[in-house]
Amino acid sequence: MTTTPALLKIFKPCNTLMRDNMLEAFDLTGRVPKGQYSSIVEPLEARTAELQREVRKRGKSVIIVMEGWRGSGITRIINLLQPVLDPRGTRVHPIAEPNDIERDHGMFWRFWARLPSYGQTAIFDRSWYTATIVERYNGDSMKEIPASCIEDINNFEAQLISDGNLILKFFLHISKEEQKKRLNDIKDSPFTMQARYLHRKEGIYMVNRDFEMIDHMLMKTDMPSSPWTIIEAESMKYGYVRILQTFNSAVECWLEKGDGGQKEQNQTFLLKSVEESEESSLLQKADLTKSYTRAEYKPILQGIQESLRDLQVEVYKQNIPVVIVFEGWDAAGKGGCIIRLAESFNPRGYVVEPIGVPNDWEKMHHYLWRFYTRFPRKGHITIFDRSWYGRVLVERVEGFCSEAEWQRAYHEINVMEDELIRDGTVLIKFWLHIDKDEQLRRFNDRQSNIEKNWKITDEDWRNREKWDQYESAVSAMIRRTTTSRAPWTVIPANSKYYGRIAVLETVESALQKKIKEIK
Amino acid sequence: MTTTPALLKIFKPCNTLMRDNMLEAFDLTGRVPKGQYSSIVEPLEARTAELQREVRKRGKSVIIVMEGWRGSGITRIINLLQPVLDPRGTRVHPIAEPNDIERDHGMFWRFWARLPSYGQTAIFDRSWYTATIVERYNGDSMKEIPASCIEDINNFEAQLISDGNLILKFFLHISKEEQKKRLNDIKDSPFTMQARYLHRKEGIYMVNRDFEMIDHMLMKTDMPSSPWTIIEAESMKYGYVRILQTFNSAVECWLEKGDGGQKEQNQTFLLKSVEESEESSLLQKADLTKSYTRAEYKPILQGIQESLRDLQVEVYKQNIPVVIVFEGWDAAGKGGCIIRLAESFNPRGYVVEPIGVPNDWEKMHHYLWRFYTRFPRKGHITIFDRSWYGRVLVERVEGFCSEAEWQRAYHEINVMEDELIRDGTVLIKFWLHIDKDEQLRRFNDRQSNIEKNWKITDEDWRNREKWDQYESAVSAMIRRTTTSRAPWTVIPANSKYYGRIAVLETVESALQKKIKEIK
């Protein structure tokens, strides 16, 4: 293993660098000493390549964010880096105008979709920072990105980091004179013209180069686990050397630490674990004696279905995304509820996403990745038949993830759902509740009825043996992921008719409420 | 197992039905006998559900195509079918206006992307038929879809069928009076308004209901292995029963046959196999003594790279998609060529797709699926580091697919490439050729050089032992997939410098040629 030469300024953790007027005061005079470029760069590059292979072996990802003034040389840096990095393990994501499907989702959706699988390196040529400025920041007279945007960014990065990945963030800095020169050189390039996206806020990145605003953004998103590095790119050679150095030191440091700092996080959860055990089951409050007869059920069902049909039309017209989550005991009747719900809807506007064991490709990503990428576009309804809550239910009980992982999941899920809701989504979460005796009756029915036989497997019986463990997992889930904006609805489902009506009524009133809010 | 009741007309293979004026002469008076609907439908539905589970077990897909006049009730039929089919195994794909990414690809790209994974059922609510009419058929005065479009459709379906899947195609037929009534009922639905897509050719589906044109289209695409069924949908109940019947008979018949008729296909390949063995290696013609010195190489390289830089700009401006395929012996220098090529390009306009073993999700699809979905959008360049030719190289030699499968692949690949080219793509295919001694030299070099050590694995040595088998696979590949529009370029690469220049020059002249054609 070669080590990084100490010839130039060595990488400093950026949080010590961040201060007011940081960019304006930045020293841009750094140059690689004449005639020494090759002898400095070559060992750095060899080390970078070696480190990237090392990261790959550990099965974690490196996410490189490239931001900077317009014309600061992001493309040129990437062109230098690409031959060094293993092309089989690296992908560049140029971020420009979102396409029409992307525009119909929350801002982070397209970044989730582009996350590298484990072992891969992603280079974002512009990123959620530029996207935040262009898509969310509307106050040209203010000098600050709104706190909620900053929070979203930090939450997003925290999700990736707590999953064990490494994020490296670079801001390429050049002087005004140099910028003018470079912009002139590239003014005819269609790839620059592609940056129409940036033009919308070109004052910030170009004309008056809004130092105050960029300073503020960098400072507020300069987290210990995902610090910014300002790159002096006045000389491309110097800038490139600084990037290699930073990459190497950061990756070395991260590899030494082991698993991306997960250890610290474990501690904070101990208290909550204790608290949980004291609690009596919230589920016991559900009144399972409620029921409807068939004669009562039929006309009520028909009435709500008609109402839901009209509501879907409104949802579609008003561009509202809707997410409906079904969780519940085995044989609680999720499938039956989903059929009654879906019958109301035009298939052009909804989809059912059945969630089972993640496939191998999904396993190569953050566990929320497969859900993010399935969220509905505006005006559309996605019904999840089981969901991300598997993390704190089956994965917890069966030990498919570590305790730290499922403990962390409550917070991660709350953050994700909050983002969905702020993006305008109607989110409805159902726990279909039956008691143990009712489940046994249904299992036996399935077992003995030849047409339902395929529905029951040995796994169902095995899960049933763990009823108590699942019960406490469910209680914890409901308590810790019930927020004012994303509450759970526990459906007493011992009576199938009652359960279905309760589900449809809940959806009906949630949609009515949202449509009223909008109008 | 229940059997399909013979109460109504039994499913007839549609090719016997197809004739001129078929639609106009069609009997639309069929009705379900009064009071018997439930007793007819319920056993049919149970059987449909059972058959779908059976298909799933076999690991093949069912693709249901729903076409018909505007207002003929596609949505209603799907709403009836959905609760019958397993929601975990079924997905509806409403086909409307392509989004901007889809519009930047060939017409079939979005259908490839939506193909179900093995075991799943896909219902296309409108399909490549409507897309062909709307996107390609421009002659309202003609009465026929152009032969090339018909050929594309038949090729597409043949690819799916020879992979073992089942395609069911329905055309929903109603009378003019009934259509008028229904269109009036749904005129305010936004899901109908979404069908702006159809409006473009509304004469065909609505106003004058172009019988001649639709007849022609149905007839020309009514293949023995993917026949059309005209559904009399004047009565929805009757139409639905007909669809269930057709589904059940077709699936039963297909399950009996075993593997979607692959057997017939095997025979036709025997002759070609013989032919192949007689042939001397085309590779031997490559002059491996050609070389450049470093002093010659450097300035030539620089010159071409500059030219390629400008050409990429043109490609981007002219909206030309470019696909560059690299195949070659292990250690032939593919990586080095790709780096030199990519150095010329702006990373915003190209991507390298390294192709390895397919992941589990990819394995759940047609082997070409993972390539189709990676094809570039207009103006972009995709460089494949290995490719679909793996099917007839490593998969053939290592026995990862059956002989029938790789034998069939030559034709399938030619069809796919031809489609690419007709969609305007520049396709360049390289075989990097070195001799056995040169490979040994390079392997030994990698083995002994600590910085290159990671590049060589036991697998490389194992592959080398099968040099002769690979050589005949390569020869067959080149011979059988060299077409006038998609020829192979064999690059003599014993001299790395010579090889790289030859590659870059080939790309240069191919791009120049295309740009000239367009201008």
UniProtKB/TrEMBL annotation, chains A, B:
<protein>
    <submittedName>
        <fullName>Polyphosphate:AMP phosphotransferase</fullName>
    </submittedName>
</protein>
<keyword id="KW-0808">Transferase</keyword>
<dbReference type="GO" id="GO:0043751">
    <property type="term" value="F:polyphosphate:AMP phosphotransferase activity"/>
</dbReference>
<dbReference type="InterPro" id="IPR027417">
    <property type="entry name" value="P-loop_NTPase"/>
</dbReference>
<dbReference type="GO" id="GO:0006797">
    <property type="term" value="P:polyphosphate metabolic process"/>
</dbReference>
<dbReference type="Pfam" id="PF03976">
    <property type="entry name" value="PPK2"/>
</dbReference>
<feature type="domain" description="Polyphosphate kinase-2-related">
    <location>
        <begin position="294"/>
        <end position="516"/>
    </location>
</feature>
<feature type="domain" description="Polyphosphate kinase-2-related">
    <location>
        <begin position="36"/>
        <end position="252"/>
    </location>
</feature>
<dbReference type="InterPro" id="IPR022488">
    <property type="entry name" value="PPK2-related"/>
</dbReference>
<dbReference type="InterPro" id="IPR022489">
    <property type="entry name" value="PolyP_AMP_Tfrase"/>
</dbReference>
